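Thread: pyridoxal-5'-phosphate complex, take 2
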Amino acid sequence: MSLQYRSTRGQAPALDFEGVLLAGLARDGGLYLPETLPHFSYAELQSMRGMNYPELATTVIAPFIEGSIDRETLPQLVEASYGDFRHQAVAPVKQLDHEQWLLELFHGPTLAFKDFALQLLGRLFDHVLTRRAERVVIMGATSGDTGSAAIEGCRNCEQVDIFILHPDGRVSDVQRRQMTTVQSANVHNIAIRGNFDDCQALVKASFMADAFLPDGRSLVAVNSINWARIMAQIVYYFYAAFAVGGPDRAVNFSVPTGNFGDIYAGYLAHRMGLPINNLVIATNRNDVLHRMLTTGSYARQPIEASLSPSMDISISSNFERLLFDLYDCDAAHINSLMTAFSQGEINLSESVLSRAKTLFTSACVSDEETCHEIRTMWEKTGELLDPHTAIGTRAARQCMRDGEGPMVTLATAHPAKFPLAVAKANLGKEPELPSHLSDLFDREERFDTLDNDLLTVHAYMAEHCL
Ligand SMILES: *Cc1c(COP(=O)(O)O)cnc(C)c1O
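Output below.
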């Protein structure tokens, strides 16, 4: 029997991998998780140490997709997903000083770590949907990085139309052009006259009622609540740990965090047997997670714009997956907690909080400190960091504990994606786009601008589906 996935809230039917790939949010409002986690023994970890990135990805992912994707197909999909990354290592690990390292996750097509998941996701969709002879419609809202990564992942999918909503005039020029210059017929960019929250509200409302789609097609989610995205991100924690001496010594990771997706993948790597001492939750001024870990109060807050916009969030959706574990997989309890949280705030019990603190530490980094960090790192190491990564390295130093071994910060984006923050750091140097994007500002853009109105958006989508 194939691995089953169940909802954190316990009220939705269990699904296999194919089911969760196409489901997104569970019907009860919860998030899907595998019923059991695969575990690698010490000997197995040692044998994985010499693998290249695609081999390692195949090994780590195989147990999760058992029964849904056959054994010969997975390596092909993985190879195709990471073959185009512009660094031979796919996820190179660089040494910054005696104890600090950088895991570079920005060598994919859109220059952010989201390519690791979305390149694979697009290929998984196409494989599964071709076999089922089905077409689906992907719909997502973006404040920048997710949209371009999802579009790049799905631009060649035969079975998929993708509609990405971005707030008109409120994403950076680089980010918008990375989406709107993709000339594939199945890619549809919509600028909404509104802000990011408006875009997200339109997407949410559409998932509640997808009858507006032609031929009975269904909507599929590509935001980080999709289990397959988390799964793909587990791989690079193993890869980085092996590069700095694991599994013979335990390692530590600092993760610039917004929706808790990326760092949750690190937590899963730990549970799957990878020795990790410390996972640093690195936040900008939108510090809902840092406050949670320091005070036990998990409370929604209004979003404030920062120099690291991909981490500007008011709640961290994937945190629910960690809560599920911390409360001993008690779905009924999670259900009532999340209902209480929808009113604005919950408080974690002492024992749950202290359990979380055995693995997690946290720090909150201001815009000013971010600029200072970009500058200091440039002067000390010659590395030009993007603002999200700079939050990671700064938090890493703040949270490092003696004798715990190497600290790896996840470099989540290329600095050229966020030139504003780099300019504010006053280095007298501008980050350059890599060669495959050097003509980005000469390419033709294609998008339509629509009012913030559900029926208008639905009519547009129905008309533009291939
Ligand atoms: C999305 C993103 C993050 C935050 O990742 P989460 O999985 O939401 O925690 C951090 N940095 C960059 C550059 C991103 O694009």
